[in-house]
Amino acid sequence: MKSVNGRRTVMPSDRIGNHPEDAEIRFFTGTWELYPAEELAAAAVVELDLGCGVGSYTAELAKRYPERKILAADVMVGRLRKLVKRCRRMGIGNMTILRTEARHLVAFMLPDESVDRLHLLCPDPWPKGRHSGHRLLTSDFVSQLHRVLKKDGIFHFSSDDEPYYTAVRGVLASSGLFVEAPEAIADLAGIRSDFEQRWNDEGKPVHHIACRRIPRLAHTIGH
Ligand SMILES: C[S@@+](CC[C@H](N)C(=O)[O-])C[C@H]1O[C@@H](n2cnc3c(N)ncnc32)[C@H](O)[C@@H]1O
């Protein structure tokens, strides 16, 4: 994106496919493709960083667990291109970078029970009341998370925004689909995402919650 006579213009080199990093990003936006189930099944452990941004956290995760498959997803292609460069610099070979919309990925594209641990770190909190409908984490979304996580899979959420964090804890608790499991992210205590670092530098704490997926209760009719 470049400013020409005060107007923001997409330069040809910015167009998808014209950038040197684009060969290493899978572009799913605007399609109804399903993620290849056999590819995920081939990895013993799959982790997904949803809304990864420029992906410092994702890259550290991939470096720490080279035997795991790490999925990094975001809508902003510029951020993903930076992540491609970071992976090259760090010699990371176990990350798949996806340009896709988070709701779409979780609701339609990923197979059932395909992810071991899903991270949603510092998502946009939409703090103004009239914008809260834009928040990603709703009870519907929690239900879809339950679908894509494997048995005993982990959902990891963080936010600097106290009201959003409290609301998310409430939605998870009332769903009956997850129980809190702080030990499930103890291995990641030393890693901070780009936004977590940014908020900490400004003196703001970032709160984390980790929950374990539990089976849905079977509902019987007539009892
Ligand atoms: C505040 S940043 C956090 C980035 C990173 N997780 C971190 O903690 O540093 C939110 C990220 O989510 C991405 N994002 C926002 N809405 C999204 C959506 N609907 N689908 C996919 N990515 C989204 C943005 O492009 C941005 O990179």
Automatic annotation (TrEMBL):
Protein's recorded name: tRNA (guanine-N(7)-)-methyltransferase
Tagged with keyword Secreted: no
The organism of origin for this protein: Victivallis lenta
InterPro entries (UniProt xref): SAM-dependent_MTases_sf (IPR029063), tRNA_(Gua-N-7)_MeTrfase_Trmb (IPR003358), tRNA_methyltr_TrmB_bact (IPR055361)
PROSITE patterns according to UniProt: SAM_MT_TRMB
EC numbers for this chain: 2.1.1.33
Binding positions (S-adenosyl-L-methionine): D49, D74, E101, D124
PANTHER family listed in its UniProt record: 3-DEOXY-D-MANNO-OCTULOSONIC-ACID TRANSFERASE/TRNA GUANINE-N 7 - -METHYLTRANSFERASE, PENTACOTRIPEPTIDE-REPEAT REGION OF PRORP DOMAIN-CONTAINING PROTEIN
Function text: Catalyzes the formation of N(7)-methylguanine at position 46 (m7G46) in tRNA.
Molecular-function GO terms, alphabetical: tRNA (guanine(46)-N7)-methyltransferase activity
Gene: trmB
Catalytic activity annotation: guanosine(46) in tRNA + S-adenosyl-L-methionine = N(7)-methylguanosine(46) in tRNA + S-adenosyl-L-homocysteine
Binding residue positions for substrate: K128, D160
